[in-house]
């Protein structure tokens, strides 16, 4: 039997986490917190279960949760999405991405991806018979050549995917970036898929500029987001998708046939929890303190870096230490030094290696201090 994804192997996240367990290493590779979520949120889930919300939720998600998402987006970005027709609760951002790509990509359609990029984009495109068109950003991946993007657009281009804030670089799109993107896509039938899962994690008094805030761009855009990233609940796999009604109707069709609906008690809990804006508005400062703790801890080390502008990842340049291949160097750090990271090369075209490792700082202060001590010793 012929595989639809013949080149797909175990993900780098699973591989590095497995090695971290085998070698009892600190795991700063996969992007999940090692601390628990707010007990108040857990109590709300328990209450929802006791209140009887243990059967199927509505297809698009709990209405109150969708209403509160709409209010949040309106407050943050000045744009109103209709809770009835333009918001869907998904099984994490991953399902939102899958449903969005599946709904619109047909065999032969081209999809532009800016690399380095999350490793689920390309396989999903290929499953639909689409053709990923890859644009490699220059290290440290904090600027985009929009003229190059323009040059890759053809009559077959159906979609362009961006990730803002950007994993793994920590870059945050500027107003100039989004204005150029809006101009680039104006008058075309190209859809923009904007992966905004780190929307509330922005540092140094910057502001997250969502495509939702750009009226013309928003009309041809799909936005995906994640409560797992926002509320330290990655294992719950609850996210959401925003899109104009005409686009959401097609996403509904895929969503209905892939999962139908998301855990009902989790949605009920998140609906209540979201009603206190401080619970997401305070996230930037929370993670900024962790980023700064980690970076202060590695002062004097041989690693170099630019502080992440957003996300909960920090890239470190190890070129002053070794010229070894990033994947091999990362494996060596696990085996010999007891610390796990992600080699950024795996996200690049043809695994182009610029000697960067990605470390997750969504960890307890104790974990970050131990990790910094190891890195200083290298």
Automatic annotation (TrEMBL):
Keyword field contains Cell membrane: no
Signal peptide segment: none
InterPro entries in the record: Aminotransferase_I/II_large, Kynurenine-oxoglutarate_AT, PyrdxlP-dep_Trfase, PyrdxlP-dep_Trfase_major, PyrdxlP-dep_Trfase_small
CDD domains associated with the record: AAT_like
Domain of life: Bacteria
Aminotransferase class I/classII large domain mapped to chain residues: 25-373
Keyword Transcription regulation: no
GO molecular function, one term: kynurenine-oxoglutarate transaminase activity
Listed GO CC annotations: cytoplasm
Cofactor(s) listed: pyridoxal 5'-phosphate
Entry keywords, A to Z: Aminotransferase, Pyridoxal phosphate, Transferase
Family statement: Belongs to the class-I pyridoxal-phosphate-dependent aminotransferase family.
PANTHER family for this protein: FI04487P (PTHR43807)
NCBIfam families associated with the record: PRK09082.1
Designated name of the protein: Methionine aminotransferase
Organism of this sequence: Leeuwenhoekiella aequorea
């Amino acid at each position: 039997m012929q595989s639809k994804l013949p080149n797909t192997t175990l993900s780098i996240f699973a591989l590095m986490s497995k090695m971290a367990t085998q070698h009892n290493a600190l795991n700063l590779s996969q992007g999940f917190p090692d601390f628990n979520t707010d007990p108040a949120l857990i109590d709300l889930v328990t209450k929802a279960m006791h209140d009887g919300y243990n059967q199927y939720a509505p297809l698009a998600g709990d209405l109150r949760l969708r209403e509160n998402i709409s209010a949040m987006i309106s407050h943050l970005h000045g744009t109103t999405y209709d809770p009835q027709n333009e918001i869907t609760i998904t099984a994490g951002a991953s399902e939102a991405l899958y449903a969005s790509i599946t709904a619109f990509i047909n065999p032969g359609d081209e999809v532009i991806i800016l690399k380095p990029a999350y490793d689920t984009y390309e396989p999903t495109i290929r499953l639909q018979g689409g053709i990923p068109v890859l644009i490699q950003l220059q290290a440290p991946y904090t600027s985009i050549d929009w003229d190059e993007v323009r040059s890759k657009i053809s009559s077959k281009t159906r979609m362009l995917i961006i990730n803002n804030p950007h994993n793994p670089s920590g870059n945050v799109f500027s107003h100039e970036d989004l204005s150029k993107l809006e101009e680039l896509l104006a008058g075309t039938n190209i859809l923009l898929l904007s992966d905004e899962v780190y929307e509330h994690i922005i540092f140094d008094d910057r502001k997250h500029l969502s495509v939702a805030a750009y009226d013309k761009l928003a009309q041809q855009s799909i936005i995906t987001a994640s409560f797992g990233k926002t509320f330290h609940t990655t294992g719950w796999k609850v996210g959401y998708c925003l899109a104009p009604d005409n686009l959401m109707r097609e996403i509904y069709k895929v969503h209905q046939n892939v999962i139908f609906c998301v855990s009902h008690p989790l949605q009920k809990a998140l609906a209540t929890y979201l009603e206190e804006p401080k619970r997401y508005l305070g996230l930037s400062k929370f993670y900024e303190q962790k980023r700064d703790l980690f970076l202060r801890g590695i002062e004097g080390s041989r690693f170099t870096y630019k502080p992440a502008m957003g996300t909960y990842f920090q890239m470190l340049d190890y070129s002053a230490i070794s010229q070894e291949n990033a994947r091999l160097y990362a494996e060596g750090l696990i085996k010999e030094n007891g610390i796990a990271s992600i080699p950024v090369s795996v996200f690049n075209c043809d695994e182009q290696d610029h000697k960067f490792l990605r470390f997750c700082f969504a960890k307890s202060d104790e974990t970050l201090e131990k990790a910094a001590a190891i890195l200083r010793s290298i």
